[in-house]
Amino acid sequence: MAQLPAQPKAAAQPNAAPHTADDIRTHVRELVAEITERTPEEVSDSALFIEDLGIDSLMAIEMLVAMDKKYKVQIPEEEFRNIKTVNDAVAIVQRFLASAGKSK
Amino acid sequence: MMSERICITGAGVVSSLGVGMAEFERALYAGASGAGQSEILRAVMGDGATACEVRDFNPQPWLGNKGIRVLDRTARLLCVAARLALDEAQAGASSSESNVESGLVCGTMFGSLHSITSFDWSGLEDGPNLVNPMDFPNTVINSAAGQAAIKFKMGGVNSTICAAQASGLYALHYAAEFLRLGRAKLLLAGGVEELSPEAWLGFRKNNWLSDTGSAQPFAEEASGMLLGEGAVMLSLQCGDAASFASTGKPLAEIVGFGAAQDAHSANGFDASASGATEAIALALESAGASADQIACVIANANGSRGGDWMELRALRNVFGARLTQIPICAPKAALGDTLGAGGAFAALVGALALQKQCLPPTPGGSGRVGLLLSSESQTIRGEYALVNAFSCDGNNAAIVLRRCA
Amino acid sequence: MKRVVISGLGLITPVGIGWGEAWASLLAGRSGIAPVESFDTSAFPVHIGAEVKRFDSLAFLKKQTPDSMGRSSQFAIAAARLALDDSHLDLPRMNLRRVGVSMGTTSGEPQFVERYNDIRKAEGLDAIPGEMLPKYPCNVIPTHIAMEFALRGPSLMIPTACAAGNYAIGYGFDLIRSGRVDAMLAGGADAFSRITYMGFARLGAIAKERCQPFDKNRKGMVPGEGAAVLVLEEAEAAQARGAKIYAEVLGYGISCDAHHMTAAHPQGEGAVRAMASALRDSGVSIDAVDYISAHGTGTPTNDRAESIAVKSLFGERAKRLPVSSIKSMIGHTMGAASAIEAAACALALDTGMLPPTINYEEPDPDCDLDYVPNVARQTNPRVVLNNAYAFGGNNASLCLAKFEAGVRPSAPSAGE
């Protein structure tokens, strides 16, 4: 049986352009829109994930995985559970990107 | 109890011959074939892969904009067929309360094979932490049936049945028993199968596929089968004559079922046809009908020699010399082998034939081994149709339908 | 309607092969949960599972070879052989056209999918051997049993995931009850699968250390593997041949939450309907039920929903009704789970003993029933319910009773 690869560690990307806050916001909004089957314009930065957008626990993990994959970070589920809006999600991605950068 | 009848009161169909009963019926009776270059397979196998695919399938008109994203192809096929069947049965899936007296019984063979393979592949490629959790529910074999129940709020029985190519008929029998026992009022029953690259590759590697681009049931020169896909949901209801008087005339009544396992091979037909013969005999017996009363046969034959010849032998065992006078249709010439859905498609063809007293054509199927198999429609006269579904793992099932006069 | 009894048991479990060994382990509160050996879990956040260790398929396969089938089929044949031996059915003297097979599973033979992808990754699609495909679809599991014992009656798989065993036993029961067949081999089988493991791990549903159903600190389920096959037989025929009868199958009920693919209905709405319809089908009142074998996976939401369901159906009586989960010991054996649990229910009726829920330490206010904590208990139950719930919202409850010739235990027993 083949060995499954471990999750990619936050990779040093010296040549990659850094993710700006605007880029992250656009991406997160698109992601939320896709998961909740809305257009990105229908997703406001402060809409509540559960109450306003109907995101359930399965959708939340989908979002977490998509963010981990895109930004090559590992946001713990316990921390992710605390985020409630697009604003929160952008903040947590920025925080993990920053700490990944420092650890290199 | 004796006056209670199990009737097919409507059908929803998604097939390579069209979506919805009107399209399906028109193409079926025109002798059309669903075979062609497969778009699904092209992506993986390149050009030249022929199959009976549901082309340009877009579930949106039936399922709306929301909720399609999480459905795999099997679930989309099934949900559209269920939607069409419910609309026809006017059971109204609009209520927000779940209906505990309605349910769904679905036959399938490979079920979620493509979804489960893709999910595992993503784990191999990206690691187990980056698999999409939304794809996991689709890996279980009963996912399509569960998704349909959620979509249409069917809170009653929800079962998935796998008996290879005999799945569809087992599913109809299963549902009929539930209705008879009073466990449900309305059940959708039938089958679904999606065309998956994984299954197609396996069939090709085993040299089971036709190399001519068409399937030729019962032909001496047949080289193999074509894979097909689709979903068919028959709405079944239980009642006496009076109860059906108000709902309009049913398509047909299910009066007999028989099943027998050859216990011979997990991967080949029993040339003696003992199980297939037994299944037909049991179906006739439970229908209280004699072989002489059968007006037409909907055959299992798909163009693969082992299975077709076994079926021929079973039909000879049951009908003797009269076999050459019984009109036969082999729908897999038009639809390909839709595997777990095949039996249910065959039952639908049988029901239509009884209703119209006209058997649809078998494309390219004239004058084979002395059978009344024709590339033209055939007039039939009689009350009963025999429907066969025999699987490559030795599981044989047959049902007998009666015309609703 | 004919009556149907259980006259043979065959078990392949993480705590023992054969019902003798497995039942002794369950009553002793022994856990079969250990570090996973089937595949490398180093890339996973969790590492435990409930695997069947030291399984020798050659001891059970007499007509077929292990390489002609997957591990689930091997388990299934082994369980079937054990059950048939246990039943002392004289197959050669029976009409084998009237003996069938009805099995349940979650994933069928998932290890062929895993091998397919491993080969595809290492060598490409061209290297995939054609012989793998026909071994995959889950219908081959009952077919392999039928082939091994030349059983020629109806044969099918009901792949309704983690509730499949109960569905399969229910179908076998229906066929005998209606007189279509004389006997059925019915149960469930599932082999340990990295796909299943990966899915549950990603959902965060797998416990890191142990399985603690209904405990306040429960952290999740533990995937497992195994099989169970029950010999179901028409009651008069079983009595006439002097068979050992473990229990009678009284009836079953199935329902669908129609709510969510993976999450149980929070109020256990579908679970209540399944239990109620099982009791209706069986003709017994709620007061007659002496024990419930819980689905009890050990996830926070499942156990809470199931407890709520039991309370909403049984009312005040729920507090005095023992409910235990053997998944605390054997993990969640997927499609085999409810079949193994049905066998445990039959043994509870036969021996008078209830298996415990182990690892139970701290009561949860949301789960305030009698879970038979940690130690087996003698209660001599007469009527029991076996609950099973699955992805897709598929629920099935099976009702078994102590067999008494001439009477059906439909009335509440004295003193209830």
Molecular structure report:
The complex is a heterotrimer of chains A (104), B (405) and C (416). Chain A is mainly alpha-helical. Helix content of chain A is 51%, strand content 0%. Chain A contains four helices and no strands. Chain A has helices at residues 21-36, 57-71, 77-80, 86-103. In chain A, helix 1 runs antiparallel to helix 2 (57-71) and helix 1 crosses helix 4 (86-103). With 405 residues, chain B is α/β, with parallel strands linked by helices. Chain B folds into two domains: 5-247, 3-Layer(aba) Sandwich (Peroxisomal Thiolase, Chain A, domain 1); 253-403, Thiolase/Chalcone synthase (Peroxisomal Thiolase, Chain A, domain 1), CATH 3.40.47.10. Helix content of chain B is 34%, strand content 21%. Chain B has 13 helices and 16 strands. In chain B, the strands form three sheets. In chain B, strands 1, 2, 5, 6, 7, 8, 9, 10, 11, 13, 15 and 16 form a twelve-stranded mixed beta sheet that branches. The mean pLDDT of chain B is 93. Chain C has 416 residues and is α/β, with parallel strands linked by helices. Chain C has helices at 19-28, 71-87, 110-123, 140-149, 164-177, 194-202, 235-240, 269-282, 300-314, 327-330, 337-351; strands spanning 4-13, 16-17, 34-35, 48-49, 99-104, 155-158, 183-190, 226-234, 247-256, 291-293, 323-324, 353-354, 377-378, 383-390, 394-401. The radius of gyration of chain C is 20 Å and the shape is globular. In chain C, 68% of the residues are buried. The model of chain C is unreliable at 411-416 (pLDDT under 50). Chains in contact: A-B, A-C, B-C. Chains B and C meet through helix 5, helix 6, strand 6, helix 7 and helix 8 of B and helix 3, helix 4, strand 6, helix 5 and helix 6 of C.
Short recap of the structure:
The complex is a heterotrimer of chains A (104), B (405) and C (416). Chain A is an all-alpha fold and 104 residues long.
Give the distance, in angstroms, between the N- and C-terminal Cα atoms of chain B.
Answer: 20 Å
Structural category of chain B is alpha/beta
What's the alpha carbon Rg of chain A, rounded to whole Å?
14 Å
Mean pLDDT rating of chain B: 93
Order of helices and strands of chain A: HHHH
